[in-house]
């Protein structure tokens, strides 16, 4: 199966109000329901982090790991997010949506937000994150790949892509981190979205449709600054 699309997120600071939430096919994509609605090859460790390959769902990466920076979630700044200490095992799935019912011959938008949470003095071995989709049980194809930048740390970066479902009636979306280095390699994920409307790009006015169609297929990313506390080194 050919790769559907792959985009690097653009580092642009937005100064616009939040966009109204479109219908989302991802269960608990904002993680406000806690550790539910998805599966993971990582070990759930809600209280604290003492090893690689663990994750939690919480309101702040710090002090789950005392070396992580402190940021609010992307949704509201005070909600929940998935916080991950990257696994040293290649191929471990960070997050898996499970089977999602979709309409055939339909254009879908996929979007998510990620942040490097290690460390305040500059990132260490940043993760290499890839979201992929499988249609009707076929091979996974990359939707979007991002090497989370070392600097700045503690900022949300938006990823956006789109695809057509063809004849498929089901989809599975997953996230894999290709970096297996133990030191550093720590990140947060929030607001994973799959739907027929983008939540990153505002719906255009009727006069803007021609311009949007001409540029369809391009996907942009966003950076949103969040608060952070100082930390030492990451593990």
How would you describe this structure to a colleague?
The protein has one helix at 209-214; strands at 43-44, 54-58, 81-85, 93-96, 100-101, 107-116, 128-135, 141-147, 155-164, 170-177, 186-195, 223-225. The protein is 3% helix and 31% strand. It is mainly beta.
Strand segment count: 12
Helices and strands, in order, run as: EEEEEEEEEEEHE
Strand fraction equals 25-35%
Secondary-structure-derived class: mainly beta
Q: Order the strands across the largest sheet as they lie in space.
A: 1-2-3-11-6-9-12
Approximate helicity band: under 10%
Principal-axes geometry comes out as: globular
Number of distinct helices = 1
Unreliably modeled segments: 1-20, 202-233
Summarize the structure.
This protein is mainly beta. The protein has one helix at residues 209-214, and strands at residues 43-44, 54-58, 81-85, 93-96, 100-101, 107-116, 128-135, 141-147, 155-164, 170-177, 186-195, 223-225.
């Amino acid at each position: 199966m050919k790769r559907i699309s792959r985009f690097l997120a653009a580092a642009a600071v937005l100064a616009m109000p939040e966009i109204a939430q479109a219908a989302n096919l991802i269960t608990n994509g904002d993680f406000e329901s806690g550790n539910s609605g998805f599966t993971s090859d990582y070990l759930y460790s809600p209280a604290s982090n003492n090893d690689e390959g663990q994750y939690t769902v919480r309101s702040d990466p710090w002090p789950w790991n005392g070396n992580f920076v402190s940021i609010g979630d992307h949704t509201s700044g005070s909600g929940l997010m998935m916080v991950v200490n990257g696994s040293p095992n290649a191929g471990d799935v960070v997050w898996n949506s499970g089977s999602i019912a979709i309409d055939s011959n339909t254009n879908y938008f996929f979007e998510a937000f990620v942040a490097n949470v290690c460390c305040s003095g500059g990132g260490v071995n940043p993760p290499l994150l890839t979201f992929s989709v499988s249609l009707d049980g076929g091979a996974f194809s990359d939707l979007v790949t991002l090497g989370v930048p070392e600097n700045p740390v503690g900022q949300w970066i938006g990823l956006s892509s789109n695809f057509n479902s063809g004849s498929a009636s089901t989809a599975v979306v997953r996230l894999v981190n290709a970096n297996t280095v133990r030191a550093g390699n720590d990140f947060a994920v929030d607001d994973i979205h799959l739907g027929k409307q983008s939540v990153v790009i505002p719906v255009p006015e009727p006069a803007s449709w021609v311009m949007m169609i001409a540029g369809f297929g391009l996907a942009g990313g966003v950076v949103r600054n969040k608060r952070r506390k100082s930390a030492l080194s990451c593990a």
